[in-house]
Every structure is written in structure tokens, then in C-alpha cells.
Amino acid sequence: MATLYARLDKALGTGVLGLIGFLALVLIAFSLAAPNFLTAANFDSMAFQLPELGLLTLAMLMPVISGGFNLAIIYTANISGLTLAWILNQNGGVNASVPVFIAGSVAALAVGSLSGAIMGCVIAYIGAHPILVSLAMMIFLRGLGEFLTKGGDISGFPDFLHGIGHGFVLGIPAPLLIFLAAAAVWHILLTRSRHGFSVAMIGSNIKATAYSGVHTKRTLTLIYTLSGFMCALAGILMLTRFNSVRVGHGEALLLVTVLACFLGGVDPFGGFGRVVPVVIALVILQVLSSGLNLLGANQHLSTAVWGLFLIAVMIIRWLAATYRTSNRKKE
Length: 331
Prior knowledge:
The protein is an all-alpha fold and 331 residues long.
């Protein structure tokens, strides 16, 4: 039995079986506590809410694996959404065509990628700390967004965007399909590409990685460029979901993306992290949020529970590391 568990754990990724087991326990607990938890309406609601947080978590994932951080993910998403909103409003507003939306989306993705590339260049070529660089970018983008919108919302978009943010494809919510596609690309990129190997190596030891022949500066720049690209995709999805854009949309999600990464087994010091455990961690957090909401709990209680989860994860990891160390000494 132990051998089978070890093989499955190795095949699926470290910690995945434990996360799946915990998810099952949470589902059982809420199904017993809230009679309307196991309903199609509730699962549809979770499926529509998860993708925004999921895309932002993917944007955070790669920098964290590299030993860095991206505090600007929320405002990168929002400034990208503002780019799309401006192009739509300048070209018909509610009557804007599909080609205009496509052109605006390309521009939004370019803006998100550019903001990430600027951060990556400063981190890689100047040597500034990722937290300080991303904090500076966050402040800049927030101020720029507030200046352009005067602190208000931008709305008035074509009706066909409703199908992207609220529609179904073969019975599956369209936003969920977008997130799953993005997660699949990120998984392949991190596990099957040279770039993914370089990301993990940089997170483990950037100096040794440079000596091994990896172009660390170029890799760091690409890491934050891809992070900005994923933020922009989240910003586009948020626009279609809310039918409006505001600089402060999703502010509370920043720390939750960090929690999802760490709950999914990503090393906070860099060097290791996989997409599949992080996706399962996102599902756990979404189930917790929805379950507590159905039980009538205040939204702030969900935030408190998430915080306790982060503390619990750190304690469990410390205990597991201590147990493994003691076993090695005995051997």
C-alpha cells in the first residue's frame, strides 16, 4: 500500500494525493453541513468564480518558483483591462465589433506583457529585488489607472462579451475552459520546456545556474513577461465577467494567490513548484469560500480561514521536514 501511494505521489506530483484527500474531506463536510452545497447551481457558481483567481495565481506561480515575487499582478490585470475597455469605447462602445474586441485584447495582452518585461529587465539587469521592483510597478500602475479613470468605473461593452464571461461551451463554463487551457500551457511550459527547467534552476541557485551556461538575465525577463501576459488574460476575463473595469477590481486576491501557491506545494524560497497541485489548492480554497458562504458566514471569516490555512501549511511542512530529517539520521 505504501509503495502504491509512493508511485502515485511520484506520478501525479508531490503532495497531490494529500490535497485530493483533503478536498474530499472538505466536500463531505460541507455537503453534510449545507444541504444546498451539492447542487448544480452551486458548482456552476464556483466554476465561474475560480478562473479569475486561477489566472492570477498562474501569474504569481512562475516568479515564485524562480525565487522572486510579483506584487503587481492585480494592477497589471486592471491596466490591461482598462486598455481593452478604452479601445472598445473608442470604437463603438456597446456596438463595438468582434474584430475591435480582438484588437483590443491583443493590445491588452501587449500592455500586460510590457509591464512584466520592464520588471523583468530591472530585476535581471540592474539586480534590484523582485519585491521592491514589483511594488514600484504596482504603485505606478495603480496611480496611472486612478489618473486615467479618475477613480471610477468604465462600462458599456458589447453584448457578445457576456457569452465569454457567463456563457457555456458543451455545458462547461467558458471562463473555466479558459483557465484550464492556460493551466495546461503553464504545466507544459514548466515541466516539458527548457525555460521551465531554467526557472526551477534559477530558484534553486541563480549563480550556479549562470555558471552552467543558462542565460539567467534573459530567463528572468521572460518569467516576468509571461507573468504580465497571464495577468492581462485575467484582466480581459474580469472585464467580460463584471461588464466593467475599475482599478481596484480584485485587490483582495493578491494574498490569496500566494496562499494557493504555498498550499499547492510551491517552495516559498524558489526552486520547486508544479501547476497541478496549485490548481487543486485553488479548488480547495474556492470550495471553502463557497461552503462558508452557504453557511451564512461573513466574507471576512473566509479570509480569516484562508490565513489560518497558510499558517497550518507552514507548520505541517516544518513537521514533515523534521520527520524526514530524523528518519535520515536513524538510517
